[in-house]
Amino acid sequence: MTKIKTSENIAVAIVEDDVPAREILAGWIRGAAGFELAGEFDDAESAIARLPLKKPSVVLFDINLPGMNGIECVRKLKPRLPDTQFLMVTVYEDANHIFNALSAGASGYLLKQMRRQELLDAMKDVHAGGSPMSSQIARKVVQSFRRMENQGDGETLELSPREREVLELLARGYLYKEIAEMLKISVQTVNTYIRRIYEKLHVRSRAQAVAKYTHLPMGSTQ
After folding, report:
1. Which one of 118, 134, 150 terminates a domain?
2. Strands 58-61, 10-15: parallel, antiparallel or unpaired by DSSP?
């Protein structure tokens, strides 16, 4: 049965140099209701040249690309595509890669051993404003968050207990509506807390706030 294409479909592009991996991802997207494949790229340079013209809703990014790596590519593309959500799909699960990717502008981080439904759910989540992460990655983020709370830091100590609570829920990938329900406050109040958090940490996005609050060493992204 042919998938029906509608204006409601989430347009997804793939930046992946491994041909078999790219073909699997492309096949999953083509065969899924509610999605359409907006383009496939095998290196960062072609993605930088063509993605701003396509303006996909979501881009799946490998990190280990020939030439410029995926993290640096996201860093260059995010200012040009502020409404596009970048989702890393990689084998790297070390802290440096995770937080470098988040700081560069990625909104989610998945490991390549994920299943098809996990990827589809993650793309819907990131499109809706979430920050999907593989369970192992989310655990590292939360552990780092706990370490930072114990260590303290000049900027993060300025956060109120409720602001810290909101930021931890952001780090776990919850949507604003879900945070409001969990804390029994309005979505507008959540937005107010998040705006204050951004101002205090001098950041402009959820991913940058989480990366800065965890305060892990930023190493090489190669």
Report:
1. 134
2. parallel
